[in-house]
Amino acid sequence: MEFEKDNSFFTGRLKSIGFAFKGAYKLITTEHSVMVQSTIAVLLIIAGFIFEISRLEWMMQLLAFGLVLGIESLNTAVEKLADFIHPEFHNKIGFIKDIAAGAVLFSAMAAIAIGLLIYVPKFM
């Protein structure tokens, strides 16, 4: 089957949105790290309502979720592509995959810091 690009603005955008939702669904249902991160996001959204966090705290919390899940998604794509191109272990592929995982670590550390800044004062 050959790919045929939809040059129509409206239907092309609708198809793109459909592909994005399909990818998000695949991530949430197949990748354990995304499952864990999504669960944490839902729990912190519930906590946000319980602790009545401010508008700015909501913005920071949502930005942190988006950052972590977005970078985790890119990390997963890099890993899947690398495994497809070179299924056997290779030092250079491993190096690339480690760098992508490091990006997730940086975003997760920032998200943890944001979470602590929001919720630690609520317990004090």
From TrEMBL:
Lipid bilayer topology: Multi-pass membrane protein
Recorded GO cellular component terms are: plasma membrane
UniProt keyword terms in alphabetical order: ATP-binding, Cell membrane, Kinase, Lipid biosynthesis, Lipid metabolism, Magnesium, Membrane, Metal-binding, Nucleotide-binding, Phospholipid biosynthesis, Phospholipid metabolism, Transferase, Transmembrane, Transmembrane helix
Major localization listed first in the record, in broad terms: membrane
Q: Which GO terms describe its biological process?
A: phospholipid biosynthetic process
Can the keyword Signal be found in this entry's annotation?
A: no
Which InterPro entries does the record cross-reference, listed alphabetically? DAGK, DAGK_sf, UDPK
The cofactors required by this protein are: Mg(2+)
Q: Where are the transmembrane segments?
A: 34-53, 99-120
Give the protein's recorded name. Answer: Diacylglycerol kinase (ATP)
Q: State the organism named in the record.
A: Flavobacterium dankookense
